[in-house]
């Protein structure tokens, strides 16, 4: 009976502590987000230039040769590379 | 001079070999937590060869062990003396495990491999990591009713935290004689997460609940918190959390502190990349090997083949299932009071077992709706569950040690 009382007490204290700590962590994180947003500058995202993204980049001749060679081997010489596009 | 006559005289050794072979099979062929189960299983094998002196001899509550027929206090013996009189495995056990050294080291590695980004992006969901600790305390109560001492009951309940190092750390502190079966139960059930979570979810959740699309809910009710610099936030976060936990639950600092330290050296980036590499690879791997072997070596036939082990296996499953169920129930209660609905799978992942629990939950969600990817949201409660179980362990240790 004494042990059961101890178990019940541990259950109450344990669950309250776990909830309290995680709530503190959540609100602390919100506070940190607010501080970081205010103090630290935003992350600089390097954007691709419009020209670079608009024009498809040319495929390097050695890469093209490797692709053609691989297709040749896989298809037994029957396949032909018509177009290579960067996705 | 062979072990054959001893094995014939005491066939319980054969049962331990069978257990070791089953664990090796599960680890090697079924890929159930092989990084831990294989060293544990091999440790079991090593510990049960008569004459090999590789089994761990547990000291009693006063630290007394029998050495060549003489009772000696283990804490008054030097390490070379332990190695000489009790064998190399006892040397490793009393130096690395009994001192509580390895679990925090492993936590450092876990921290180095953890990304707190999903948690910081979905802070609201982190609270379900607390609800899922209910299984720990419920099983503690049940175990006390079954006749376990409070220390043993706490070590049994902590299996529900689904966190191997936390379970081992708590057991070392409270009931070291149960270390073997508790570690085996904890890691076995963690390996069975893909079976246990779907089982509990099927029992408690409806199809409609499982189809709640978190992204659509996010579009309907957008979050007010916007993170402008996640990198800086991720560096500040481990420092702040360690400080808070250290103030409120000092006994949990060895686990949470090391977890956050590992995470900090990861998030700083190139300046500490060598430390990160050591923490997440060489140190973590070495610690895992010694932890596994030593835990396995505690499972000698006399320590393992008893009714307590069966109680631990049943109690461990109950703790695990109850933790998942309480997370789900908390989400259901939350959904009753909020317009912004939450998929109950996020509650189910409130127990640790990162990231397997989240992956399993995501698989369940996409089964009902292929476009409903909940992985990121589940990771939030999953990661907070690691902090939650470490705090629960800290509470248990501070009251019962």
Explain the overall architecture.
The complex is a heterodimer of chains A (87) and B (401). Chain A has helices at 2-39, 50-54, 61-75. Chain A is mainly alpha-helical. Chain A has a domain at 2-42 and 58-75. The two termini of chain B are 43 Å apart. The chains are: A mainly alpha (87), B mainly alpha (401). Chains A and B meet through helix 1 of A and helix 9, helix 10, helix 16 and helix 23 of B.
How many strands, what sense, and barrel or not for the largest sheet of chain B?
2 strands, antiparallel
In whole angstroms, how far apart are the ends of chain A?
Answer: 69 Å
- Integer tally of domains of chain B: 1
Major β-sheet profile of chain A: none
Shape of chain A: elongated
Strand order of the largest sheet of chain B: 1-2
State Rg of chain A.
Answer: 31 Å
Order of helices and strands of chain A: HHH
Radius of gyration of chain B: 22 Å
Kindly state the percentage of residues in helix of chain B. Answer: over 70%
What is the overall pLDDT average of chain A?
80
- N- and C-termini, Cα separation of chain B: 43 Å
Low-pLDDT segments of chain B = none
Keywords, please?
heterodimer, A: 87 residues, mainly alpha, elongated, B: 401 residues, two-stranded antiparallel ribbon, 2% strand
List the helices and strands and how they pair.
The complex is a heterodimer of chains A (87) and B (401).
Chain A: H1 2-39, H2 50-54, H3 61-75
Chain B: H1 4-9, H2 12-28, H3 34-47, E1 64-67, E2 70-73, H4 79-86, H5 88-97, H6 102-112, H7 117-121, H8 128-131, H9 134-146, H10 150-157, H11 164-174, H12 179-191, H13 193-204, H14 207-210, H15 214-220, H16 230-248, H17 253-268, H18 273-297, H19 301-304, H20 307-337, H21 345-348, H22 356-368, H23 375-400
Antiparallel strand pairs in B: 1-2
Helix pairs in contact in B: 2-3, 3-18, 4-5, 5-18, 6-11, 6-17, 6-18, 9-10, 9-20, 10-11, 11-12, 11-23, 12-20, 13-20, 13-22, 16-17, 17-18, 22-23
In summary, what is this structure?
The complex is a heterodimer of chains A (87) and B (401). Chain A is an all-alpha fold.
